[in-house]
Amino acid sequence: MGDVGVLKKKTMICTPLMGQSVEQMVSEMKKAKMEGADLVEMRLDYINDFHPQRDLQIILRNKPLPVMIVYRPKWEGGQYDGDEHSRLEALHLAEELGADYIDIELKVASIFMGKQKMDQHSTCKTIVSCYVDGMTPPIEGLSCWVARLQSTGADLIKLVINATNITEITKIFHLLSHCQMPLIAYSIGDRGFMSQVLCPKFGGFLVYGSLEGSPVSGLPTLESLRQAYQVQYINEDTKVFGLISKPVGHSKGPVLHNPAFRHLNYNGIYVPMLVDDLKEFFSIYSSPDFAGFSVGIPYKEAVTGFCDELHPLAQSIGAVNTIIRKPTDGKLVGYNTDCEAAVTAIEDALRERRYPNGEASLTSPLTGKQFVLVGAGGAGRALAFGARSRGARLVIFDIDFDRAKSLADAVGEVKHYEDVVNFQPEKGAILANATPLGMHPNTDRIPVAEETLSDYQLVFDSVYTPRKTRLLKEAEAAGAIIVSGVEMFLRQAIGQFNLFTGGEAPGDLMREIILSKF
């Protein structure tokens, strides 16, 4: 396995502060340092009743770490709506009082820097920045913006976009890799998240991370950058893995895979990837750097069409949850680790109840049992084929009847979805929910009638946020054995990790993480 990366040029972690008072700003500076920030971005335009002479002295006299001063006007997306001369004078004052960096907009850079040149003794560095509003230009257009920023004579330059598709983020990576001077470049918004976390791989000057309890759209937290992603170890050789899904906010993959990579000294990083269009995504992210993917809702079936090869199990199921890019020829190979993960989790729970002292049994406890499956998507198909391989008798419900019927033709019996609330199972049957019902934040729904839960011997829920869903709580109260989606998630993740790295996953560590983080 490759050695964990050591940065040749350290990418700093910066925390944006938008406190409404000087006291709050000073307090948050100290908090940022405690949480692991290398510097803070101080947004003066958010301070109520801001008085430069008074407030800048307090802020800069009490700074526990380097400070970047930003005083953003409304015409560049900020809060300041006053006199432009007064704004520039405040920035010059910040420079005189000991600010480490001053961020100035490209539009007024020549005015600001003309006066700055008169002071030859300043150690403050100037960042000239530009926000490209609207549709993200082609790479040639962005390169022109970078050239304009460089021509100002700034010490550093900053370019910000608002990506509407994750495929636009590759333009940021290109700029970071090719710029000949220190560059801060990223996208705001949810689809820009990856531009922050992968910034160190492509040579960015800094990555932004928010304070715990003060979330900012599109930004990881300081804690996650230091603990989960451990960006301090990312370098140009780091292999990128990620979850292709929509949504991705619920994903716990990064807190599981990244510490496991570090534990085995494997130079990899796992990130969430909010994907809107599979075809466009795979055509753009074709580099060997993007070595493998997990696949989540709603793409587990559709993604099979973008794989060059399918493992036989994935092909028979018709769903993929893991993709590996072959290093030899770049071909994408699809696998399914959901199937065995879910079925063995159910079997082990049944065996534990039947054989509490651990006696062995060669026969699957699912053999001959009625297996009621709600949901015939990717996860549902994996459950269905796994249960059928153990000799279970399947009854399948899905809101899309044709999809349910297609699955039932291969493995069992189909019922109309509207009948699920009135369905009376056999005594001792198994119930498996393979729909998003009950997932955070819509945690109050269950797929079956509550009064039927006492007829099931075991209830499984593929949802893992929250760990114990309402369905599982109600089933447990009714006397059923319950199996959380967390157990399936852990087992499928171990299978994925083995495929990602070609080695053996640290299963005990990953289980320990699951128990502490979920």
Detail the topology: elements first, then pairings.
Blueprint: E1 12-17, H1 22-35, E2 39-43, H2 52-61, E3 67-70, H3 84-96, E4 101-105, H4 109-116, E5 125-131, H5 139-150, E6 156-161, H6 169-178, E7 183-187, H7 193-197, E8 206-208, H8 222-228, E9 239-245, H9 253-263, E10 268-274, H10 278-284, E11 290-295, E12 309-310, H11 312-317, E13 322-325, E14 332-335, H12 338-354, E15 370-374, H13 378-389, E16 393-398, H14 401-411, E17 412-416, E18 429-433, E19 456-461, H15 470-477, E20 481-483, H16 485-501, H17 507-517
Parallel strand pairs: 1-2, 1-8, 2-3, 3-4, 4-5, 5-6, 6-7, 9-10, 9-11, 12-14, 15-16, 15-18, 16-17, 18-19, 19-20
Antiparallel strand pairs: 11-13, 13-14
Task: Characterise this structure.
There is one protein chain. With 518 residues, the protein is an alpha/beta fold. It is 35% helix and 19% strand. Strands 7-6-5-4-3-2-1-8 form an eight-stranded parallel β-sheet. α9 runs antiparallel to α17, α12 packs across α13 and α12 packs across α16. The longest helix has 17 residues.
SSE class: alpha/beta
> What fraction, in percent, of the residue positions are helical?
25-40%
Distance between the termini: 29 Å
Strand arrangement within the widest β-sheet reads 7-6-5-4-3-2-1-8
How many helices? The count is: 17
Average pLDDT value?
94
Poorly predicted runs: 1-8
Question: How many beta-strand elements?
Answer: 20
Strand composition percent: 15-25%
Radius of gyration: 27 Å
Instruction: Name the shape in a single word.
Output: elongated
Largest sheet: 8 strands, parallel
